[in-house]
Amino acid sequence: MGNQAKNWQHWIPVLEKELAVEMQKAPSPSEVHAKDHILRVLRRCILLGQRLGADLETLVAAVYLHDLGRHYIDDKAHGALSALKAEPVLDRIKFPEDKRNAVLHAIRAYDVRATPEDRTTLESKILYDADKIDTLGVVGVLRYIRHFYGKKPIDYMLDDIDARWEGLALPETRDLALQDYTYIKNYFAQLKEELGPDA
How much is the pLDDT for 42? Predict the structure, then answer.
């Protein structure tokens, strides 16, 4: 475990540099999927990965590369494109060959088009969950307001929050995110009550 811990930490500055290079090449970088999002997802992936005994090297690489496609297309379904863009990066940094398929699988399977059955590895489930819970809590409120407030009714946001919560793959993620889920649900329920039923 000590050796594995050292290995996964070694990849963080390498992948951070590669992400910056890839973002500079991208035609339309997504502010919602920028470095701050990556770091929040990374923190949760490491926490869940350590708790559940996941391969942290695979997780770290998947986290840094999972949104590459989102900087090329404005589509929630960007996992396949992200995996396509991630493959040459893994090659360039000489990421362990025996773990590359696991990284690419996690990236593809975190996509909204993927089903729970598509997420066949612990790492793919952790990445999926860690990404989804980034829309909860205080940061989640900010993200929903930036992207949906005034464009969609509050009920849309409440339903979307519930759908994300219900779709989580791991009970450990629910334990980790329960406080954030409760916070964001209460926030938008209170907002709707104060603004009236048509909000």
Answer: 97
